[in-house]
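Archive entry: two folds, one per protein. Generate the first.
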Amino acid sequence: MHISTSNSYNASLDSLMTRQATLSSTQEQMTTGKRVNRASDDPAAAARAERALAAEQRTVANQRGVDASNNAMTLTDSALGDASELLQQAREAMVAAGNGSYTDAERTTTANQLSGLRQQLLSIANRTDGSGTYLFGGQGAAQVPFADVPGGVAYQGTSGQAQAASGEPLPLTTNGAAAWMTARTGNGVFATSALTSNGTAWIDGGTVTNPSAVTGATYSLQFSVAAGATTYSVLKNGAATALTNVAFKPGQAIQVDGLSATISGQPANGDDFELTPSSANLSVFDTLDKAIADLKTPGRTGSQIAQTTSANVGNLDSVLGQMSAARAQVGATLNRVDAVTARLSALKLSSQTEMSNATDLDMTKAISDFSNQQTGYDAALKAYSLVQKLSLFNYLSP
């Protein structure tokens, strides 16, 4: 077989160019640290990397929504904490004002103190997250949720919660109506009140002794005083019951259908007390408004002061309980945010690992390959230089 000088020359040149391209590709991989720098390097690996990158970007987008929810719920938790502290101050002031030694002027001073606390609470209820979104606006978070109107504070937000733009169902706002406006009256099951009180008697908040016996009816405790004897009769929804003309003993609880209430002091003839089912319509602001109005009323008797103090403190305890429940719900959301953040971090790491496995370069192997390819390239270059000298004219005498 005859091999021409031209053929040897071309073969050497092709080998040299191939080795140079391979060496250049390996050098690029070592520079970028990536085995796959373009789809043509490894189509299957490039597709894997593209899917992993898309998954990572979705995770990052979801994390932005989670971060927004975390910020909103942290601010909401802080707001509810501030509100609870103010309500505790209001409770202490109410209890102090129930002291029989207080004068009407001192009670008016306490009422003014409660008015200041009320204004602070209204400001807290209308807090924003710093970007114009009202924390307690519910689904209508773009407008002021609470407005001080004639007759009290009205909720202008929309019930529900605005959700973060994320694959995770996390809230950006809190239902202000539920947190601030829907505490249960009385002790949560029934509320006590004095319809008519001419004597020195007053009724406490009452307790439930047998939940299974509670009927949800309205009971009236009507007192009669004749010949020095005090008796009472219990009416259920206006109808007489077996408890009729029962001898009254001060401080002894009156029990009916699983409900118990104690009347202290001495009732007068015609005094009437009522036990009504609780309703979930007690607001923070109505509670304070009622207490302020009572404290500003002059000339009340000791029993009237005791009665209103008991009722107002009981209602305040109820709104405090509702506030605590709302804060507990926010705390549960923050715990869920932490769990979601941890899961998204794991998903992001998994996507990054998948992309790394698909495209990253094994540097140790690459250095070894580069060294071998450098040796091969040097040999090809030397062979090419020798082929260049294969010419008949090199052997002709001058």
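Generate the second and append.
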Amino acid sequence: MDNMNFLKKILEQSGKLFEKGKFLSWAHPIWEATDTILFSTDKQTSSGPHIRDNMDIKRVMFFVVIALIPCYLFGAYNIGYLNAIATDVSRSMFENFIFGMSYVLPILIITFVSGAICELTFSVIRRHEVNEGFLVTCALIPLTMPPDAPLWQVFIGTAFGIIIGKEIFGGVGTNIFNPALTARAFMYFAFPTKMSGDKIWAVGPDGYTGATALSIPANPVEYDTASNLLSQATQFDFSLWNMCWGLIPGSIGETNKILILFGAIFLVYVGIASWRTMVASVIGLFFTASLFNILADFSTNAMLTITPLQHLLIGSFLFGIVFMATEPVTSAHTNKGKWIYGFMIGVLTVIIRSVNPAYPEGVMLAILMMNMFAPLIDYYVVKSNIKMRLARNA
């Protein structure tokens, strides 16, 4: 305790050098960020997200990072496990984990370096405090990446997500789009050969293909149902249980649905994420997938035959609705709005996956699209509530 008081005293004294009019005033946001990281603050937020209890924004971000840690740990193990299959070698669980971390850590470090540079630069230029929101953004981005994503592309993608997805709108609380999804969408369209296809999802020898569960029905040799195509795959086990457990190719953090569900329960329990948005998204997905299964009898598109449960377990749908769709700034805020917002994310995910074979993973574009409409949804929900109250009091 004495050491912390001593450190706090040093920070308070050095803070005078960063005050307005002093030599280091330009670097005040950096000093302020250091102070708030080490010690609690009594400042109130002037823009969203607003937390109306004793939990400050710093702790909100901290809880989200805690919920993401299991996805990181399993993602590292899965990379090693898939590589062992690809190279036909035998490793222990710990050895697979260490092998996977050799791919995960560089991506994580580069993401945080890029994010910190952008955040600190804009804080100094605009002379506003550094917001901890970029920590969650930088924790999410690596989990949406393939394990062998080039690090220079990760650096550029992270910078694009933070600058274009957040900073040009004024920073945290004023952005329209989820910055992590903005980064992932930019990388998909800017570097398609590194972000999609069937050779990037398993770290193996040159020429080794590691098709994801979504890419198999999206590119069938000849028309068949998605279930048959997945069951005929010989590289990996695409059974429902294994897709749930996550020992399949995919982005680093998206494959293990059990850990994602535990993360969802944790975030709902601590009051950060909205269960309404999650449940509505699943309902929208099941509704649209069931409708498309009926329409599949009149089409040769294998993507229309993907069952609702398969849609739920393959790809990054669950990861997206738990950690991205519920983001407190860019999602709907009214309770009724959350049902509409989430339902439409589920509907659009299935539509994008099924109708556009060139982009079989649709949840990220679905969330970004609904980010644009979230304020409009809330506007009409509030307007409707006012109208109903006026009618009752008339």
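Annotation attached to the second fold: Residues 57-393 form one domain. The chain has a mean pLDDT of 83.
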